[in-house]
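so the lab meeting is tmrw and i was supposed to have these ready like two days ago... anyway. pasting both below. for each one the top line is the aa sequence and the line under it is the structure tokens. i havent really looked at them closely yet so no promises
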Amino acid sequence: MPSFRSISAILTVLLAVFAFPVLGAAQSGPAGRYLEGQHEQVKRILSRSGDGNSAEVATIVSGLLDFEKVSEAALGDHWDERSAEERTEFVGLLRTLVERNYQSQLETTQTYEIRYGTERTQGAVVIVETTARSTENRRAPEVSIEYHMKRVGNRWMVEDVVTDGVSMVRNYRNQFNRIIRRDGWSGLVERMRSRVNP
């Protein structure tokens, strides 16, 4: 049975990049440099003392993810069938789940280090290549993480994350579809609401 704990945990790889120590960016382009700038902002927050740091970081980092685009892509035809109010609620629930998951995973994500690689374009999407490696278990293989980004106004937004070849959006789609087939749209939303307000 799919769990929203596992669904939201998928985004840890997206959010964790901003807690990782950065080893360098050999050939970063504009999207990679934007990610690095956000990373530096998060590092400054984490260097301060205070109980509200994790919430502040989660808000900043989750602001990089285009939740509406992710929701639309992950839901497919189910998105088209929903009203504007239903879409707005769904996007808000997903955002809350991601922010809470990041706060709970913050300590774990700081046990990795990140290296920025090259950028490449795929139509209107810029793909930023990175690798992550555990600082606690050096024998563990490094993880390949690709950030699929688009320019939105004066900032870059993440529309998908591919971890070792596995797409976050496709993973979402598979899990959402299973829940909707079994429990309907109302069952999916109720499950999300229960995670937000246990």
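ok protien two:
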Amino acid sequence: MVGIPLIIDLLLIWGPTIVAIGLSFTNWTGIGPITGKNFVGINEYQKVWAYPFFMPALTHNLIWLAFLMLVATPLGILMAVVLDSDIKGSHFYQSVFYTPVVLSLAVIGLIWQLQYAPDVGQGFINSLLAHIPRLPFTHFLPDISNTDWVGDSGINLFAALIAASWRHVGYITILYLAGLKSFDPQLREAAAIDGANARQTFFHVVFPVLRPINVVIIVITAIEALRAFDIAYIFNGGKSGLELLSTLITNNGLSESPRVGFSSAIAVVLLVVSLGPIVVFLTRMLREDDK
């Protein structure tokens, strides 16, 4: 029961991680054997710092994190609170919100790539925008109809964030709804007796009690943002305004002139950045176990 999952974890998780750390100190291209001449110390890390796409990719990952944390996650929590109020058709809406969660991110990328198709009559969004007249007081806004949402227009990061949020909102909704269903209703009744309205009850009673769920949601959101890859790569290969650390790893490691050592160095940087929320999550879980 323990040995087989442990072996799989070592082979598929820790094994490649250790190999990547070792390769990050080499300039190996992925072709031919590794010799002593391939070991270059921290030279590849210095190249990563000087790489012109590294800071934009890191910035995009942080923007991704901020958008999921400040927009998609609160929206998911709001949806969970609404569905917990036993509105009519609640089970139907739960199914609707959860449907994107069971789809792979690659499939979601393909779905939204079709929605963002630049030709009017093909992409739903551009077709819709083309039939909406521009109001006189919106002349200062950019005309986003007939825009290449997933090309070189610079708006593609926003488009990718919308696609990612479509799945993330549903995930957070179901996760938080599960926590709300297990919430002790007597606490709500006590708050109502004390004169608290629905907003006060949520922020001063429900939200603090669901602190373990809140921590899990924060960690999951951080990990989702830092490991983002599929949607950006489906859109345009992670280029032209959609550079992420994960796409830099793939594009450099699997290009026509592969730089495995260099891409491994970027992977180690991503690992170090990701350790923050992972350590917070594990520390939280261990403290709960001790209690």
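from a quick look at the 2nd one: The CA atoms of residues 26 and 68 lie 35 Å apart. The mean pLDDT is 84. will dig more after coffe
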